[in-house]
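I would like you to sit down with the record closing this message with an eye to the fold:
=====
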Amino acid sequence: MHYQDALAEEIRDSAARLLAEDVGPGDITAELIAEKHWARARVITREDTVLCGVAWVDELFRRLDPRVILHWQAADGDRLSADQVFLELEGPARSLLTGERAALNLLQTLSGTATRTRHYVDLLAGTGVRMLDTRKTLPGLRLAQKYAVSCGGGHNHRIGLYDAFLIKENHIASCGSIAAAVREARDIARDLPVEVEVESFEELDQALDAGADVIMLDNFSLDDLREAVRRTAGRATLEASGNVDDSTLKAIAATGVDCISSGALTKDVKAIDLSMRFLGQDD
């Protein structure tokens, strides 16, 4: 399935799951409010952020109550400042309240991913080094978080186990050698990229000789990263991985690698503080 088609399907499925887990057979607290009451509300961010999740919220309220109208004042990927209003809603008060938590949960999580990614991308500005995510995503949110990374200016490593080879230590041990693993990968799918994770210069040389497209340098020191760049001389794309944080990112980029990957973009998510406030109700 094409990525965009898969993402559209994921948005529909996610909205359905979110409503099912939160609303269940019905929102009993919302029944305190008369069904005829109409309301308006605003959603604001309490901190600086990069917005992500618009399509999910649209789909959630579409499923919940098509009468709810959403007026977005920002788009996915936009930078928002603390206390900025970025969404206004109007519709039945019951429906606004029922959808509030599911919508905010999704927005604050995906915006957290996009915001962390943008922070790293900004640190890499001017280096030409690409920031990559990993498969260390929150369960059930793989495509959503991959999309959030792209909204933050990052790049997707691979979506899953099906769209690229990543040959690691246990694969190498099972196949007998790096060369054998790469040959087998080419036989399985010549059109897919083959990446090999290496932990030493000996393995780096073997991966280069085997013709790997991408080589992941796992936990190499800065000096070793520089030496790996020299040895590779453009014969493969070099990805640095391990010990990536605010204090090391620029130094890693300065070694000359092509890209840097970090699981922290998606697994160590700090949700953004968002709030929805009613402006009033009308009979």
Q: What stands out?
A: The chain is about 45% helix and 20% strand. The mean pLDDT is 95. The two ends are 47 Å apart (CA to CA).
